[in-house]
Amino acid sequence: MKEERRTPDGSHLAPRSMFSRRLEDRLTHWSSRTGIAVEVWALPSQPLPGEVADLVQAVIVDTLDHVERHVPTARSLSVALTVAPSGLRLTLGVEHAATAGTRLDAVLLRRRVMVAELGGSLAVNTVDPPAFLPGEPLGGTTVGAWLPAEALRR
After folding, report:
1. Beta pairing partners, 88
2. Distance (Å, rounded) from C-alpha 105 to C-alpha 16?
3. Taking 90 as the threshold, does the pLDDT of residue 42 lie above it?
4. CA 153 vs CA 21, 27, 31, 126: distances in Å
5. β-sheet bridge partners, residue 68
6. Are the CB atoms for 67 and 108 separated by under 8 Å?
7. Fewest CB atoms within 10 Å of the CB: 3, 16, 23, 65?
């Protein structure tokens, strides 16, 4: 059965790749199990080469595992995975209470090396809100990875 996707206004969307469908299923299952909301902003319609798909999935799984086990204040996780002529970009954003995401950088150290071996880069940035805000102010952690187009042609 051919998948037909449309925007809310009825415009056609490109069909998702098998990788994207499996990733979306994994994210839906993870969200149901953890109670943490997941927002998928973008997933590619084209297939990814095996080595790249495995690495992208590993970065996402390591991040999900860390958030589930060590960030009890996580409120939401957003995912954007895009492929352009310049390469692939992955952005994962986690909204959480202050200082909750600080160890994720160490967790992804091995993945950072693997991304670099393909000519790319991986960074983890955590931002804590000012302490003077009332209530329970939220901070966030962003995982960003980029792979050059050459890595997609291997």
Report:
1. 83, 147
2. 30
3. yes
4. 22, 27, 32, 32
5. none
6. no
7. 3
